[in-house]
Design a protein that fits this description.
This is IDD protein. Residues 45-187 form the C-type lectin domain. InterPro entries: C-type_lectin-like, C-type_lectin-like/link_sf, CTDL_fold, DGCR2-like_CTLD, IDD, VWF_dom. The chain has 256 residues and is mainly beta. The chain folds into two domains: 39-91 and 98-187, Roll (Mannose-Binding Protein A, Chain A), CATH 3.10.100; 190-251, no CATH class. Helix content is 9%, strand content 37%. The chain has helices at 59-68, 79-87, 163-167, and strands spanning 8-12, 18-22, 41-43, 48-57, 72-73, 102-115, 121-126, 141-142, 152-160, 171-176, 182-189, 192-193, 199-200, 205-206, 215-220, 223-229, 241-243, 251-253. Strands 3, 4, 5, 6, 7, 8, 9, 10 and 11 form a nine-stranded mixed beta sheet that branches. It has a three-stranded antiparallel beta sheet with strand order 14-15-16, with no helix packed on it. Strand 12 (192-193) and strand 13 form a beta hairpin.
Length: 256
Amino acid sequence: HGKENVDSRHNRGRGGETTRFHTVNVAQPVRFSRKCPTGWHHYEGTASCYRVYLNGENYWDAVQTCQRVNGSLATFTADQELRFILAQEWDLEEKPFVRKDQRRFWVGYQYVITNRNHSLEGHWEVAYKGSSEVFLPPDPIFGTAMSENENVLCAQLQCFHFPTLRHHGLHSWYAENCYEKSSFLCKRSQTCVDIKDNIVDEGYYFTPKGNDPCLSCTCHNGEPEMCVAALCERPQGCQQYRKDPKECCKFTCLDP
């Protein structure tokens, strides 16, 4: 922003007349803090948002909860994405179905059992075929609540609460009875989020979440594009004032 403490500047023009220059705010480059609604974690590598839900639900209910927020149970495309997930602090509360030192949550894989002889044999599949280029987990640890009649088990990713373990990327994969209750991890595409934390649909105008309420942009692939900035003059007759952080060209005068 420009020098807002200067009311005007005077210069002598030709013929001795006074030329008056008003100082206005000058547009600055903006770095948007955007792309995910409040409570979601953004990962640039996949242009995705992630959120752990703490309400214990079975696998099928968790699937529906993720779908209601335009997402799905998380699958992973690369080790880097998984390491990002493991490094996050998910603000997980203590729940009856969660051990104090470790956390498990449903993710978007299922283990299909093909042989029940001396050891369980099978393979991982992506639960929803819309996911492309995902990696499959290694051989799982089998959960304690398994039924002999179940031929499909559901994936739980275990991460650890302690920071040293978390940042070393230690984790385990469990194949668990799908009707057990657990926290779960949803994943959705990044999105446009306006300055009041509302999600904006593709192609609509909005003011991006950030520190400039005078921007108007178009939402395109989760990014604000073709932005136009309004420039505001300082309020007249007011020496000290405060800008409204959410409303363009709205000021509060602080003079006595």
